[in-house]
Amino acid sequence: MRDAKAMAATPADVKEYPNSYVFVVDMPGLKSGDIKVQVEDDNVLLVSGERKREEEKEGVKFLRMERRVGKFMRKFVLPENANTDAISAVCQDGVLSVTVQKLPPPQPTKPRTIEVKIA
Amino acid sequence: MRDAKAMAATPADVKEYPNSYVFVVDMPGLKSGDIKVQVEDDNVLLVSGERKREEEKEGVKFLRMERRVGKFMRKFVLPENANTDAISAVCQDGVLSVTVQKLPPPQPTKPRTIEVKIA
Predict the structure, then answer these.
(1) Cβ proximity of B78 and B40 under 8 Å
(2) What region holds the SHSP domain (chains A, B) (predicted)?
(3) Which tens digit of pLDDT belongs to each residue from A13-56?
(4) I want to staple B63 with a disulfide (CB 3.0 to 4.6 A). Which of A14, A63, A64, B22 is the partner?
């Protein structure tokens, strides 16, 4: 896991919604079970996985081999208002989407109305 | 469709089986309906599609945009023994697999046995 050289990068988009951040990562050929989504150091979103080349079989020959296999990892530093207790992930058509909810903004101090009695 | 500059390449593997060729192309985020598989000039397999960025919505901001969108195309010259009438394609987890059957090898001429009668 620590060997950066063996790690392939995979393109990602990051989108900000009013109430959440969404991290979209291309992962063609990976199923949900092959992908790991973790939070490290309280503010780093870590997405990792491994794409395996199917085993060589008797009578099968590769004429071309461009698709990258192996481990890959992406790290995203989360914004301060990310709620690391409210993260969900879904993988569809080889694309992983991780949604991180935002913490509610600090409650603005309500203006206090003080009744002034006129004596 | 003819503008090569607008076309992104996408990695592919080509495998040869005893009775078929299989072309494997990464297409994360595309559904079967977004992909076109054609045979051109009788011996060229053409795989094309388009990945669209979802429409910009009010209140959604892209903080990072690495995933490529747009049209893409891959062409493969088919071997002579490819049977262009026997092609099937399936897309799963963002990976397209196109199987092209091989034509049966030309029937070897059977050795003829000529009975030689001894006079």
Answers:
(1) no
(2) 3-117
(3) 999 999 999 999 999 999 888 899 999 998 999 999 998 877 77
(4) A14
Could you tell me which residue, B9 or A15, shows the higher pLDDT? A15
Q: Does B19 touch chain A (CB under 8 A)?
A: no
B11 Cβ under 8 Å from any chain A Cβ: yes
* The two three-digit tokens of residue A14, written as one number: 């990051």
Q: Is the pLDDT of residue B113 over 90?
A: no
Of A28, A59, A62, the CB nearest to B26: A28
Q: What is the DSSP string of chain B?
A: ---GGGPBP--EEEEE-SSEEEEEEE-TT--GGGEEEEEETTTEEEEEEEEPPPPP-TT-EEEEE-S--EEEEEEEEPPTTEEEEEEEEEEETTEEEEEEEEPPPPPPPPPPP------
Question: Are B59 and A12 in contact (CB < 8 Å)?
Answer: no
Walk me through the domains of chain B, giving residue ranges and CATH numbers: 4-54+64-102 (2.60.40.790)
